[in-house]
Structure formats: C-alpha cells, structure tokens
Amino acid sequence: MRRIQQTFDYAPEKLTEEPVPDYSAFWYGDISPEIDVEGIPDEYEMFNDIGLQRTMDEVGISADEFDEIVEKQFLDELDDRTVELDNTKSALSSRMQQQFEVAKKEKKTESDIVNNLLRSKKKLTPKEKKALAEKRAERKKNSDDLFCWKCTAQNLEHCNKSGTAQKCPHDQRICGIELRKRDGRIVGVQMGCQSSSSCEANKKQNFIHPYKRLTQCRPEWFMPYSVCRQCCSSN
Known about the structure:
Elements: H1 24-27, H2 42-59, H3 63-121, H4 126-143, E1 147-153, H5 156-162, E2 164-167, E3 174-182, E4 185-194, H6 196-203, E5 225-232
Antiparallel strand pairs: 1-2, 1-4, 3-4, 3-5
C-alpha cells in the first residue's frame, strides 16, 4: 500500500482564497462542545489566529481596537446594571420620603387641631366650660374601665365563641376565672367580673398541694377532678 504524505504550509500567502471561518468566539470562551480543547494542535491555533486577523482586517480594526470594543461592551453592561440598581434604590428612597412627608403632615394637622381647640377654649361660655369639664371627667373615668370576658361554657373554644366582653362595674374590679377539669380534660369554664373580696375568697378554695405551682390547681395526675380559680386585675 502506497503511503501518501501531505505537507501543509500555513503561511498566509499559501492559504486558499476561500473565506476563512471566524473562530474569534473560540478565543473569548464560547467554545463549541464538539471541539476537543486538549487535542488542538499548534497548527490549528495558528490557523485560528490567522482567521481572526483576517476577520478584523475585513472590518478594518486592529487587535487593540477589538479588545477595546469587548471591554466597552462589558463596561456598558456593567453601567446598565448599576443604573438599574440606582433606580431601584432611588424609587425606594422616594417612597420612604413620601411616607415621612405624610407622617409630618399628619403630625402637623394633629398639632393644628390641638391648637385650634386651645384657642377655642378662650371663647367658651361658662356653661360650655362646665359641660366640657364634665365630659373630660367622664372620659377619664371611662379610661379606667375594666373589661372581662364573660362566659359559662363546657370548654375554652365554646367560651371563646359564645362569650362576650363585659364592662365591669366599679365595685367589681376583678376578672374571675373558674376552670374545672375531669381526668385531665376541661369540662367547665366560667368567667366574668367579680369583686376583689369574692374572687380572693374563691381562690383560697383551690386545693392545696405541695406540687401545685403558685395559684394553679391540683396537678391533673394527682386526682381525677380539680377546680382552679384565678383572679385577674387587668383586661
């Protein structure tokens, strides 16, 4: 069998006149999957270099100008992202500033109302001043009102659904709570306004046991039935 030996001359003047493929993407990281990078001979790299040079010559730019274009594209993209981020920050700052302005305006409006009321007090007649004083006293009295949740139910869920808020009279300044358990399960709940003396007397009836915590009832593991009474002095 006759061996045919081919020699290749990669000098530019020896290349064919056919258009040389543009392998410039290879040099900037966009390597095709079918190219074996490890198996590329030096001649192939030289061929690519010539192809890239011819491409740049056809466009009329030098290698330095080509690098500048690539760098400018990168910087332009970076600038676009920076501008987008700055716009987002600016929009957020603008919304926050609007909220601050609204808050300042509301505060100023509230201050104007107070000042108007203070100015109007000077024009009140004695009868109007007396009525205003009575309203203030009533408002102050109502501000100390105590509200208790009132219910008589079989469990806490039923108490929550069927109960109502009760405004306690001034002689009943305690919220009394009675909780009944049987075999560890709640079988009765009663809540409502009570006088301090009555609630404290009921609480003293709680079963006394060395293992009970503070004013809690007997431990549910100690006996099958227990009653716990508590007194709350706040809503």
